[in-house]
Amino acid sequence: MRPIALLQRTGFGFLCLWAGLMLMGARPGMATEWNALNEGSQLGQLTAGPIPLHSPNPEEALRVAQRQLETLTTEPARTRAHTRMASALLDLHRYNEALRHARLALQQYRINADSQGVAQTYHLLGIVDVALGDSGRAHLRYQQALHGFSRLNDLRSQATVHEHLGDLYASQLNWERALTGYQSAVKIWQKLREPGRVAVAMHAIGRMYLAEQQYSRALFYLRQSAQRSQDLHDSVAVGYVMHSIGSVYASFGSYALAQGIYKQALDKLPRHKAPPVLQASLYESIAAMQDSVGNLASAEYNLQQALPLEMRSGSRSRLSDLYYSLSMIYRKKGQTSAALEALTHHVELEDSVAAEARATQIAELRTRYETKKKEQEIELLQKERLLQEANLRRQTGWRNVLGVGALLLLLLVAGLYRARRRQAGINRLLTRKNQAIQRQKEELDRLNRTKDTLFSVISHDLRSPLSSLYSLLTLLNIGASSPERLAEHSVRVSRALDATLQLLDNLLNWSMAQMRNEGMKPKVFALDELVEECLTLLLNDAERKELLFQNELTARCFVRADVDMTRLILRNLIGNAIKFTPAGGTISISNRRVGAFWEVAVTDTGVGIPRADWDKVLGIGVRSTLGTARERGTGLGLRLCKDFVELNGGKLSFTSEVNRGSVFRFTLSAVAKEAQMTVAPAEDEQASSVAAG
Fold first, then answer.
1. 180-186 long-range Cβ contacts below 8 angstroms, 24+ apart
2. Alpha-carbon torsion (500, 505, 508, 511), positive or negative
3. Comparing 129-138, 360-369, 412-421, 558-567, which segment has the lowest mean pLDDT?
4. Which long-range contacts (CB under 8 A, 24 or more apart) does 449-455 make?
């Protein structure tokens, strides 16, 4: 068994299982809402109240609905009975029959002009289509249901449909659209003040960010979900969320930390009430961590613990995968007979799963055939309409020809007018040439001043580390110091050289910035994606100082700027925040729209800057103070950020308070919504090597 294979099955595979539970109405960590549980046994209550999408006893619900269809005579009551039949058949996995009854109910709801019934039936049809594997039609049904609930201002139903849309996109691995669905649901649940549903939706958002490998955002939402579930004393929900948090750390190689989180989640679960599938997944994840470090005995033990739980869960596919993982462990341990037996179980279960899949596909094909037949009848009617529209377009075409002729005439007149203006432009060009010569002279003077500044900084800051290095080499040559003394000198010189390298990098980039726009490559890109990249890159540094990153960007924001310069600005500002924030502090990134600009703020809870030193912060050659962990700096990083922001048309500013932290803000040109629709995410370019100053 390869560790990464099992991690994928218990990570993203677990997400698919969890999304499937949500599609069927079962919400991890929350009691399923049976608001109309007793309606099925009360014939007199059929004309009021919502129809539940699921029932705890579908066989009994089916019998009651059949009895209602046989005895009831009023059309509204029979329509609701058809809806109950469809819901019960859905729970019994008799999807084709459920589809037929749901369509009968929808037809009658339309005749009766029952908007609530129409919207609810569209929602039910979407769930049935998902079960049949027809995701395209399911998406259409969900959108129709959402439109109906919006017109009725039914917020609870809107939130549920948004969640189901998110589940549908998640099953198709369309993480961005799934994320949009879950975020819409969170807003509504927060408005309705339902913390349990908010926790579930935030868990889903965290899983989406994990799927997109945006680990800092994933941890931010998963921790919020865990806190809300703990406040509700829902240990099962906490178990699901901690499993997801462990998957985040496992995804970027922190196996020991992930294993500890899995074990902690397992210990907190109520063993007799927790879902078997959750317990089994936690055992399998722990086994994967043990296998990754070569502890095969412990990996086998945890897989054996998961085996009876998987049998209780009833999922043949997951049980088949578990037997395969066991066979790989036995093979590594050299237990050939045990490996063969486990592999045999795996193959038998795979064959059974494949047979069930084939039966489902046959039923699905039959349903699609019937649907296709009806669609062809509709298509014939549409063709007649298209013929009529074609005749209308032919008449419109002649009018367009006349319009084009008139347009060509106007273009000819415009061309003559432009020729006359071109002559005047040549005269203005000569004037601009003279002005350009004057600007070049001023630019040469400015570059000479930049050169003098560079030489001044280099002569001041390089002398000390080079002198220390020369002294260390002299001691080595004469052998006049003890090994302990030499080790101390080596550490000191290494730190000095590291600071010197940072200085040289910042000097190089600063000198390029002094060349104005030379080398700049402005383009439209998603600033929030670049922020996530920088946070992920510096996540280990923050973890090492026990700092908490909070990505508080509230919307997709597209800007026009140089990608490399923007990446350097973010890394310098975030690096400075890490440097001057003590252990246990918080660093947050937020944004807001300010006119034609996006303003990004980097906020820390660090030591702050005295008011008397504010005017010195962005100066050239100012010595940087030591960080909270005695990190050294060059004093050039913030000046470099200021120059790069201004080169891109923005402005850098800051506020600070001693022992309360600092806020550094910068602005970049925002891009209009019309331009965002045609812009792809920024290309993954080589990250800048400039460290925080």
1. 182/208, 184/159, 185/159, 185/160
2. negative
3. 360-369
4. 450/511, 450/514, 453/620, 453/621, 454/507, 454/511
CA distances from 159 to 48, 117, 316 (A): 22, 17, 32
Mean pLDDT (the chain, rounded): 79
Compute how many other C-beta atoms are within 10 angstroms of the C-beta atom of residue 601: 18
Q: In terms of Cα–Cα distance, which of 639, 608, 392 is closest to 514?
A: 639
Q: How far apart are CA 101 and CA 89, in angstroms?
A: 9
* Secondary structure tally for the chain: helices H, strands E: 23, 7
CB distance 596 to 669 below 8 Å: yes
Task: Give the predicted TM-score (pTM) of the model.
Answer: 0.53
Through-space distance between the first and last CA atoms of the chain, rounded to whole angstroms: 46
Q: Mapping DSSP to helix (H, G, I), strand (E, B) and coil, where does residue 548 land?
A: strand
Tell me: pLDDT of 32 over 60. no
Are the CB atoms for 302 and 284 separated by under 8 Å? Answer: yes
Residue type, 662: S
Determine the Cα angle at 96 with ends 93 and 98, to 5°. 70
Q: What does DSSP assign to residue 274?
A: S
Q: Are strands 652-657 and 661-670 parallel, antiparallel or unpaired?
A: antiparallel
d(CA 425, CA 418): 10
Q: Cα dist. 512→158, 447, 453, 557, 644 in Å? A: 53, 10, 13, 27, 10
Where are the domains positioned within the chain?
49-153, 436-515, 520-676
The residue among 244, 187, 257 whose CA lies nearest residue 218 is 244
User: Cα–Cα–Cα angle for 598, 506, 585, nearest 5°?
Assistant: 60
Task: Quick: pLDDT tens for 156-171.
Answer: 999 999 999 999 999 8
Give helix 235-251 / helix 3-23 axis angle, nearest 10°.
140
In 10 A of CB 233, how many CB atoms?
A: 8
Q: Which long-range contacts (CB under 8 A, 24 or more apart) does 343-351 make?
A: 345/320, 346/320, 346/321, 349/316, 349/317, 349/319, 349/320, 349/323, 350/320
Q: Which CATH number fits domain 49-153: 3.30.230.10, 1.25.40.10, 3.30.1330.10, 2.120.10.30?
A: 1.25.40.10
Contact at 8 Å (CB) between 633 and 502? yes
Q: What is the pLDDT of residues 479-491, one digit of tens each?
A: 666 777 667 667 6
Q: Contact, 42 vs 309, CB < 8 A?
A: no
Token pair for residue 356?
Answer: 């069930």
Number of alpha carbons in the 13 Å side-chain half-sphere of residue 606:
29
Instruction: Give yes or no for residue 372 having a pLDDT over 50.
Output: yes
Taking only the tens place, the pLDDT of each residue in 404-453 is 888 888 898 888 888 888 888 888 888 888 888 888 888 787 677 666 65
* Domain formed by 520-676, architecture: 2-Layer Sandwich (3.30)
